[in-house]
Specification:
- With about 90 residues, the protein is mainly alpha-helical.
- The protein is about 55% helix and about 10% strand.
- The chain contains two helices and four strands.
- It has a two-stranded antiparallel sheet. A two-stranded antiparallel ribbon has the order 2-3.
- It is elongated.
Length: about 90
């Protein structure tokens, strides 16, 4: 469960890190408030949200069980043994 959360967090932070790297390369002060105008931060936030939404769509489209697969939930068999859930 932690991997999807970290993936989305990394995708959200990527535009901000790239912009900070750009400021560093151009010899601007990265931590100066004037280097981060409101319009730029808003644009970076929109780009970050688009990246996250796109990754949600890609993950839902390409992950999971193949079509036509039946899920058999976990159960206890006739001998009292635990049988984990499976896809068939």
């Amino acid at each position: 469960m932690i991997r999807p959360v970290l993936t989305e967090l990394a995708l959200f932070l990527t535009p901000f890190v790239v912009f900070a790297f750009f400021l560093w390369i151009t010899k601007s002060t990265v931590f100066d408030r004037a280097s981060w105008p409101t319009k730029t931060v808003a644009t970076l936030t929109i780009v970050a949200l688009v990246l996250m939404i796109g990754s949600f769509l890609v993950l839902t489209h390409f992950s999971g069980a193949p079509p036509g697969t039946t899920y058999i939930p976990a159960h206890i068999d006739e001998r009292g043994n635990f049988v984990p859930g499976e896809l068939r």
